[in-house]
Give the backbone structure.
Amino acid sequence: METPQKKKLLWQLPFLVLLIVGTVLIIRQQRNTPYQHCSGPIFGTVYNITYQCDEDLQEQIEARMHEVDSALSMFNKQSIISRINRNEQVKPNTMFLDVFNLAQHISRETDGAFDITVAPLVNIWGFGFTNATMPDQQDVDSVMQYIGYQKVSYDGHSIRKQDPHVMLDCSAIAKGYGVDKVAELLEQKGIQNYLVEIGGEIVSRGVSDKRLPWKIGVTKPVDNPEAQSELQTVLNVTDKAMATSGNYRNFYYQGGKKYAHTVDPKTGHPVQHNILSATVLSDKCAQADAYATSFMVMGLKRAQQLLKRHPELMAYLIYDDKGKMRVWYSPSLKDKIQK
């Protein structure tokens, strides 16, 4: 006579078999699903995206990126941010407000090191969307009165500026946000393995087409363009977002002095801190993008202090120590360093 326990096991056996067979079929299907690759120009830079899917999604991916461009690009004359900068009446959409609200939050967290009102300063130093000659202190002082994240707000209907000369510049956060929106699209499609990269800002999930975790190199911050492909380290960024900011990428020399594209909103001048490159890992690329720029403005000590308050962030900072290149990284990042 069969015991109740044996009867229970006999009833469970078919379900266990189905579960095992189903799992094997899912794994086999995943292995047979091809990886798609697409790339092209966007946001004044280039995107490269790899994802595992039977369907070619490039058209949908580009449509999503162009939505971001239509909200946040200063080079698009009809974008929401361009119209706000021209003081036109325009109702910001969800994408613009997502970035605006996050930017204001990070501005408060960094004591103004991150500030999307820096557009006039970026322009007069020759790194913005207008051509400029080398400014003097009077030029800098003339626009400092329009700088400050507190000078803009959202009243529930539109962006309010304390002065019509205030201009917004989301270039230090928009690329990261674009990466997030493409990743969001892929997630909605049920895609579990992908890497999205726009202009060096990255989000990844799952494994690569080699069935290995995604690994991304951090470039050694040197001024020589021929040597900029040399890697400082390699990081495991699977299931993370990563952004890098560095003054070795966009700069010029004038009178024997180097002027880099990161402008300090407090001083009105390009930063002269010792950080050469700031790489930030976070759950969202927009956040990583903005904090990477912030750390370039803040310098090593202030960046380290902020990271203590924000354990959700990880950073890999390359800095100059009396002419020698050194590295500091978050203790939680140690297991992700592959080289």
Observations:
- Residues 21-29, 250-259 have pLDDT under 50 and may be disordered.
- The chain is about 35% helix and 25% strand.
- The two ends are 64 Å apart (CA to CA).
- The first strand starts at residue 35 and ends at 42.
